[in-house]
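Why does residue order matter? Because the sequence determines the fold. Keep that principle in mind as you read this record.
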Amino acid sequence: MAGHTNEKPASRFTVFATVTFYLVAAIAMVMANKWVLNKTDVPLFFLFTQLVIAVVLFAGLHVSGFLFRMPEKPMDMALLKGLAPMVILGVVNLNLNNFTLKYVDASFYQVARGLVLPFTVVLSSMMLHHRPSLLIIIAICIVTGGFLLGVAMDLSPGGMTTTTPIGVICGVLSSVTTALQAVVIKQALGVVGGNAMDLSWYNNVLCAFIMVPCIVLAGEVPNVMRLFNEGGPALSTFVYGSAITGVFGFLIGIAGFLSIKITSPITHMVSSAVRGVVQSLVAVWFFGDIITTGRGSSIALILIGSIYYTWLKNEEQVAKERAAGGSASKLEAGGYERIPMKDVDADIRKAEATQS
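Structure:
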């Protein structure tokens, strides 16, 4: 943390380019995922294909010598044991993200996963034995209220028939696992010497291996065989969708890393808010989604609460830095939630992303 204070701030163009890169990659990922999930009955195999494409792209970067070199450390039992919590949780989270998107509209996806921030704050408080301030609690209540409003309006009689209880349940569970990932990813970084690209490489490879028995156990093998044997529009959609989401999923990992490294927490959260709004508008145009008053109000409350929370945390951090007088040790002790929040946002985008 202390080391960041000596780094030269990124230029405005660099920040703008990074945020734009992240927005385009994240929105394209969600839209392409929804497009394929609407038409396929092999969602686990679809996720496996995305992971394989990411692994291939990592290998391409290794060969070209650009950005990434495969780690020399072998995948021994010590490494696998250290990464196991992250990988298992990652597989669960990625599948929950996809099932959430499959069973709700793309414009409602942000609402269904609207409890990521509240769960993150609760987990951080429990683990670090730190009680949030009253204003932080108010910000979290605003976000939670937005989630409850959106779910209540969509699931009420006469609400949106495209929003299903299973989609909402998957969204809530996805929010929990995303919050948990902030913890396990931070621990897993220590296993690979703090190298985020190495961690992403191991995560994609190991998740792909784990997905193979999951596909078999879920009974998707006959459906996969039928998909390739029959061909036609279904196969074309699957192939093109897998290629698009595989590439953009890979780019989201890089975009998330760059966004965390270059942008401030407030810029980061505002860009997430812009993504949510643009994503909903694109869903209206691309899928014919309907933005009801309830959905619009829900999205607005979640965004307002999230931005307010980030502003509060930034103000707290600035005050602690001033009080510490530049002491690196005091800075480390003060910013207890800053790292978890960044890790969570990066994972959403990657799974998505998230991730997020």
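The two ends are 24 Å apart (CA to CA).
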